[in-house]
Design a protein that fits this description.
By secondary structure, this protein is an alpha+beta fold. The chain is built from 9 helices and 14 strands. It is 46% helix and 19% strand. The structure holds zinc ion. Zinc ion binds next to loops.
């Protein structure tokens, strides 16, 4: 199983210049390779492959271009382009909006990768080929063999190393306890154990600050230094909110994995929901997808399972007797006229989700049924 660790880097001024230069060279390579594919197709009707372009890169390198950047890092930039083309063709084939790969403007190419070798991690130093030994803050131990090393710059200009390691798969434990999780609009999550977790207040406060900063930014004159400052402020607040949110989601996912062996989520169609403007903010805020992702990775390391169920009527159905009790979003309490069950609507939904997850395990495709 693959797992990733992200560590902060503290490059010197000189190293930072080298890192920036590497990003720029990769960006130019990406853009020129994209232009080459476009031309080859439009003018000669040829579809370029990654192999074609990698061979061309070797020739260009002999002329002394791209000096100062590790060769596999350059190849990885071409691989990224290849990936975006493959995704493009997949979308075309599937009849979806294709979205042709785009040229990357300044500041839009944010990371580069050492896909196999060319980097070395020792105590508090990360040595990168062609760049040097950069101070790294390793806030935790790395398990397993490091496979790839990606260097990334965020909007605030901070640098990070993302190390992907391969560790042995943890054998699945015999599941004994299951928990259902529902994303609510009022509370962050409702659990089938009856618990609900609220969104922290500091997050709402930070959001308000962000709104003010954004308004402020929109009033500044383009190209002015005040605008630059305001922009940085917005970026800083965004980063802060994201950090808080991730920390919070890590706590919840840890709790879920510690408390059950099977964790059942509703497989929300996030893309579909983002189109619904009223719900969009909540979905983004609550970072539903991220919570599932964090839980999946923690579960895999503990030999536990995350089930995703296609759930319909989970909030309408009574988790005790199964009849449909229609309610609008404003109705917060599930009250069943048939069996008399009364509980938080989201907790009722999470119980239904749990049931669906367990049923899905028992009989394969039954999870897609309306139960
Ligand atoms: Zn009932």
């Amino acid at each position: 199983m693959k797992t990733a660790c992200k560590f902060r880097l503290y490059p010197t001024k000189q190293q930072e210049a080298q890192l920036d230069l590497t990003l720029e060279i990769c960006r130019h390579l990406y853009n020129s390779a994209l232009a080459d594919r476009k031309n080859a197709y439009e003018v000669e009707g040829i579809s370029r492959t990654y192999e074609d372009q990698a061979a061309m890169l070797t020739v260009e390198k002999k002329d002394g271009n791209f000096r100062g950047v590790f060769s596999q890092v350059l190849q990885d930039a071409l691989k990224r382009l290849d990936k975006s083309f493959k995704a493009f063709f997949r979308r075309v084939k599937a009849g979806r909006e294709p979205g042709y790969p785009r040229f990357k403007g300044q500041g839009w190419y944010k990371s580069f990768t050492y896909p196999q070798v060319g980097f070395k991690l020792e105590c508090s130093k990360l040595t990168l080929s062609k760049i040097g030994s950069i101070r790294i803050f390793k806030h935790r131990e790395i398990k397993g063999k490091i496979k790839t090393c990606t260097i990334k710059k965020n909007k605030l200009g901070c640098w990070y190393a993302i190390l992907v390691t391969e560790i042995n798969d943890v054998p699945q434990i015999e599941p004994k306890k299951a928990i259902g999780v529902d994303v609510g609009l009022k509370s962050m999550v409702a659990l089938s154990t009856g618990e609900t977790v609220q969104y922290p207040r500091y997050y709402i406060l930070a959001e308000q600050k962000l709104a003010v900063a954004q308004r402020n930014l929109s009033r500044k004159k383009k190209g002015s230094s005040n605008r630059q400052k305001a922009k940085l402020k917005v970026a800083r607040l965004h980063q802060k909110i994201q950090n808080h949110r991730d920390e919070f989601l890590h706590q919840i996912s840890r709790k879920l994995v510690d408390s059950a062996d099977i964790i059942v989520f509703e497989n929300l169609n996030i893309l579909g929901m983002l189109k619904n403007r009223h719900l969009a903010k909540h979905i983004q805020d609550h970072a539903w997808g991220k919570l599932i992702q964090f839980t999946q990775s923690k579960a895999a390391k503990a030999g536990k399972v995350v089930e995703l169920v296609v759930a319909r009527y989970t909030s309408q159905k009574c988790s005790q007797c199964g009849i449909i009790v229609p309610k609008t979003l404003a109705v917060r309490v599930h009250h069943c006229p048939n069996c008399g069950l009364e509980m938080d609507r989201d907790v009722n939904a999470s119980l239904n989700i749990r049931t669906l997850g367990l049923r899905g395990r028992a009989c394969g495709d039954a999870r897609a049924l309306d139960l």
